[in-house]
Amino acid sequence: MALMDRLPKHLFTNRGWGILAAGALSLGCAYVLGRRDLLTLAVLLIVLPIVALAGVRVLKPKFQVYREFNPSTVETSGTTTVRLAVARSSYSARHVIMEEQLPPRFGEPPAFRFPARSASGGTSRYEYHLRSGKRGQFRIGPVTAEFSDPFGLSLRRHAIDDGDILTVTPAAVELPVTGLAGARGNDGVTATRIRANPSDDDIMTREYRHGDPMRRVHWAATARHGQLMVRQEESVTTPEATLILDQRFRAFAAGTGSVFGGHDEDSDLVTSTNFEWIVTAAMSITAHLAERNYSLRLLDSFGGPAFRRSRSAPDPEAEEFSALGGLQAIAEGLAAVELSGPRHTRMEHHRSEHSPEHQHSAEHKADSPGATSAENADFPFNDRLMDKLSAHRLRGPLLALVGNLSLAEARALAPAAGYGANAFALVMTDASRNNEEVLEILRLAGWRAAAVTSKTPLTAAWSAFDEGGIVEAADAAMDVRRGAAVPR
After folding, report:
1. Suppose 253 and one of 82, 141, 260, 483 were both cysteines; which one would form an S-S bond, judging by CB atoms 3.0 to 4.6 Å apart?
2. Burial 391-422 (b: 16+ CB within 10 A, else e)
3. What is the pLDDT of residue 344?
4. Confidence of residue 57 (pLDDT cuts 50, 70, 90)
């Protein structure tokens, strides 16, 4: 039996190898004894397994596989139910052992027998459950089947479908209510008459329509227009929030506090522990604001759509999201968002960033008149981002989730506080760097900034925005809006 276990099972079964051995023995006996009948038997015993081997590789039974995930996208640590329906497209009377191939993180692949005992209409249905502790996109399947010839001499395993992609989104952390939103109504909306930037629908009067009560007639407007005019209902608009999601490799992969692990086990996401914290924060904050009827706008640190490089995004070029559909699109976009940009980190760059030569070079790159060139486009928090923010100036809070910042990058980001009704920044840091100067630059420009690490509880970081310094930050932000210089 030990010898039989060593023989390759992808060619013949134990039975097949036994018949081949019997054929070889018969051939030897026919040669020694000169018996023609033994020679005939030997040829039959040798040819039969070879024909069976060729048959299972050429004649492949055809199947149709239908796979459904419920829910179609699942949050990390959540459970999705996988439903399989397998139908035979070609006739075969034999039972087949099938196996669903899974990434290693999901454990042992489920195996099942086709047709199932409860098969109806030629279709067998199966069900199992999956759970992932990490976000990403994972290929579930294909279903592989082990086929054998009618005599059971040869085996062949091959895939009968291509598999399907399961999207695992980051789970949102429930955040406490803070003063981030400012003055809002109970339903999360604000009347247009108290908005800093009125929109086109802020019309105070309109033409009289049948059924309008006479008490709403605006007589002065009626006299001016020469026709009956009534007071327009106070229009209500949805509050807006803009979130800047930093995705730069250099900002998250350097330092001892953010251990970069390369490609994740069975997902090819380029990520780090610090960046995973930021992704969870982005999901939690957007969910928190969406529950309060905010429309959301997500940008990267260069002013482009935040999910332009996310393979899981339903619309990679989308920047604006609203309602439950928008929140779902954000969750799917965050499922496969990853670090991008140059992957070499030079520690001497960080060590020398406080030197006058380094600061002068970086400031010149970010602030010089020629900064609209391609060189400036590669610098984070550039003019393109500022133009995007100015288009929605003061329409709602501005939030920045950023990695390790140099002083020059902090100075480039600082003026953005003037474009939000309130400005909040979570700055990822690590033990190898002192970000006090970075935070000071942001706070003097009007940001409510907090330094975080991958071990910081998100709820504590969020609550920190309400702990002191709010009046000072608001006054500083107002100074910026009035044209005060950004601290240098």
Report:
1. 260
2. ebebbbbbbbbbbbbbbbbbbbbbbbbbbbbb
3. 52
4. confident
Nearest CA-CA partner of 125 in 68, 178, 77: 68
Give the model confidence (pLDDT) of 445-486 as tens digits: 999 999 999 999 999 999 988 764 433 444 444 444 444 444
Q: Is residue 169 predicted with pLDDT exceeding 90?
A: yes
Average pLDDT of the chain to the nearest whole number: 80
- Among the listed ranges 101-110, 134-143, 214-223, 473-482, which one has the minimum average pLDDT value? 473-482
User: What are the angstrom distances between the C-alpha of 411 and each of 112, 384, 439, 443, 486?
Assistant: 61, 16, 10, 11, 8
Q: What is the 3-state secondary structure (H, E, C) of the chain?
A: CHHHHHCCCCCCCHHHHHHHHHHHHHHHHHHHHCCHHHHHHHHHHHHHHHHHHHHHHHCCCCEEEEEEEECCEEECCCEEEEEEEEEECCCCCCCEEEEECCCHHHCCCCEEEECCCCCECCEEEEEEEEECCCCEEEEECCEEEEEECCCCCCEEEEECCCCEEEEEECCCCCCCCCHHHCCCCCCCCEEHHHCCCCCCCCCCEEECCCCCCHHHECHHHHHHHCCCEEECCCCEECCEEEEEECCEHHHHHCCCCCCEEEECCCCCCEEEHHHHHHHHHHHHHHHHHHCCCCEEEEEECCCCECCCCCCCCCCCCCCEECHHHHHHHHHHHHHCCCCECCCCCCHHHHHCCCCHHHHHHHHHHHHCCCCCCHHHHCCCCCHHHHHHHHCCCCCCCEEEEECCCCHHHHHHHHHHHHHCCCEEEEEECCCCCCCHHHHHHHHHCCCEEEEECCCCCHHHHHHHHHCCCHHHHHHHHHHHHCCCCCCC
Of 470, 397, 34, nearest to 181 (Cα)? 397
Q: Mean pLDDT, to the nearest integer, of 2-17?
A: 68
